[in-house]
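Question: Send over one sample?
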Amino acid sequence: MSSDVQLDVEQASSARLIQQQIDLVAQAGGGRVVLPAMELTLDRGLALRSHVELVGQGEQTLLRKGPGRIYPLAGYHNYGMCDVPLADATGLEVGMTVSVHDGSAHGGFYETFATITWIKDNWVGLDHGIEADYRADDKPSLTTVYPLVFGHRIQSAAVRDLRLEGNRAASDRNMGGCRGGAIYFYQSRGLEITGIRESDYDGEGLSFQMCRDVIIRDAHFDGNSGNGLHPGAGSTNALFENCGGQGNAKSGFFFCVRANHITVRDCEFAENGSGISIGTRDCNNLIENCRVRSNRGVGVLVRPSPRPVEVHSCRIRQCTIQGNLDVQIDVTPDAHDLIFEANQIDGGDQGIGIRIAETASSIHLESNDVTGCEQDTQIQDSASLASPTPFTCGYGDAPADAFQHLAVPERD
């Protein structure tokens, strides 16, 4: 039985109180937690649960991330431990969400994101084991860095109609996109993200990793220090419609490793570090009717990914790709079976329209209108233009075995 709860400003006056309502609705079998028109600075992230929707009042409901502070570890601590020793734990509370990092090259899934379960004598308990060995020489630390809204191993959940502010100026450390983002999901399925306006997070705007069956509509992620939108780590069967990423330091849209059977439709990516980036094992994806403009790097980049993890079986059609720096579409080595059709490509009187590397193959160009470039196409080997092998692509077209690499909750 579902249970909908409409909160007033007093009931939603802290992240802790909102979390209590989310948990109660989940325990009752699911439903909606509806936030009022308000502004709230969070001291922790909001954990979404299965069968729960967190809903705001659009632009009138603003959630702002609290300051990100650094708490140095007292010394070495090793993988799998559900606690960390701090030099000083002052200011931390049970229930807060935190991250553990170090100053080495470790990043990605080596970072730890967790919830505090206990605090004693500057030892801080975590709800699961740390993800790596953290050596004293690498200056490890716990930080109050966290997603504003997140879900781990959940299903049939949604976040809707919220304004989210990342408050970058108050962050002493950013969060890696593999473990977090302003909105973040991990090993989950059946998710919907609609009506979101997010900006200014010190990390990714939207990140979901190892997820399936995700719908994102009318959602914009702008001005972040990482990528705007980041489906990654094997995520399969996702639909993006009427979304955008503008002014992000990295890509507007970043397909990460093995992001497959994804449709990106009627979206805009402008004034980012690059427009759309496609890479390792990112296959069977469809990008259509999108606008990719005025980015500081390549408009649509197919990143170098040597076999057997090369990019293939993607279709980019009816897009406007214009005014991006140097190259509008760049197909790098080993990619194959890509179709570019009916795109409007304008270099703004500079650079290359379409560049195809020598070892790319079966790259099909059809009815593209290329203007305003110093060189319309740069094809290093004409053999690369052989016809592609027929393929299917996009959301809703994944065969059953497309999900076999994922460990997500079973459908109820």
Notes: The chain has two domains: 70-143, 147-385. The radius of gyration is 22 Å.
